[in-house]
Amino acid sequence: MNFGEPGYEERETIANGLDVAGKSGFSSVALNPYTNPILDHSGSIAAVKAKALNHPVYLHPIGALTKNSEGVDLAELLDMKEAGAISFGDYKAPLRNPNLLKIALQYAQNFDALVQSFPQENRIAGNGLVNENKNSTSLGLKGIPNLAEELQITRDLYLLEYTGGKLHIPTISTEKSVQLIKEAKKKGLDVSCSVAIHNLILDDDELKEFDGNSKVLPPLRTKKDKKALIKGIKDGTIDMVTSDHNPIDIEHKKVEFDNALNGSIGLESAFGALCTLFDTEKAIQLLTNGKKRFNIPEYGIKEGETVELSLFVPGETYNFTQNDIISSSKNSIFLNKKLKGKPVGVITQKGFILK
């Protein structure tokens, strides 16, 4: 997930973003290095952690894999891990150079680090805006073919098989991607993956209104892809879900569709959206599965244990509106959608925050 700070505070500050997370039921969040400047050295990691020190919600930064996320030189991975980075990736800037990913996977094994690689081959995706199919053609919008994702995943899995190490592939979106990762796991490769909640719930029929809030990356795919993603969740191929929370200010969203920035806020709607597909227990499992993979402490409910509790009201069905949005930015893909279950807040060792 993203906050705006540092660099894009008009979208979301760390302080307000943590309030949003807590009131949305998240006691711990992982912060992508989608900032300005990029979180690519130990000082920047320490700085964002310091801003969350006294907040009830725990903030776990992800360090950039390459300097300035430019895909040219590796960043200071070991130093960032010692400063508190839980993983390394260039957010949604795909690594074009396969040798750089090979070196990263090899080097990261020296300190048991998790490397991330965004699944898109930009030379195939080109200037695409939405999923490539009949909808994109009828709407006159440039498409991003499934191949762009699947080709990158195939490459990265071959590299992982060669190097060993640990790889996380964030926000997959196609049926073939699920199959590729399932086969890799059968081979014994140490690979995990996630899916954005909106890719589980919505499909590219949403684009017919040309609503900029529906412009996300990876794009909303077909009903067939969505069905395969849900199956991948149920059979364990997909390890976790993500809110893919990405606040974008109105000046960069309420514009012509071609010019709108990708992204949707997702913290406030995450629990309620998931519960439209899964029961409460499964939804909680999917939202917390990432802790083990990213080496984030997990606590149970027992005497003497560290307190980390999420509070929610399950079962209530409601229409998600602007009144449910706490974020500074209002770019929700779930506006006016039916959700089920409402988060209330969190209680942690550092305090509590409630709606």
Automatic annotation (TrEMBL):
Gene3D superfamilies: Metal-dependent hydrolases, Urease, subunit C, domain 1
EC code: 3.5.2.3
Keywords for the protein's UniProt record, in alphabetical order: Hydrolase, Pyrimidine biosynthesis
Keyword Cell inner membrane set for record: no
Positions of the Dihydroorotase catalytic domain: 5-176
An example molecular function term from Gene Ontology annotations: dihydroorotase activity
Top-rank lineage group of the source organism: Bacteria
GO CC terms of this entry: cytoplasm
Keyword Calcium: no
CDD domains: DHOase_IIa
InterPro entries referenced in this protein's UniProt entry, alphabetically: DHOase (IPR004722), DHOase/Allantoinase_Hydrolase (IPR050138), DHOase_cat (IPR024403), Metal-dep_hydrolase_composite (IPR011059), Metal_Hydrolase (IPR032466)
Protein name per Swiss-Prot or TrEMBL: Dihydroorotase-2
Source species of the chain: Christiangramia forsetii (strain DSM 17595 / CGMCC 1.15422 / KT0803) (Gramella forsetii)
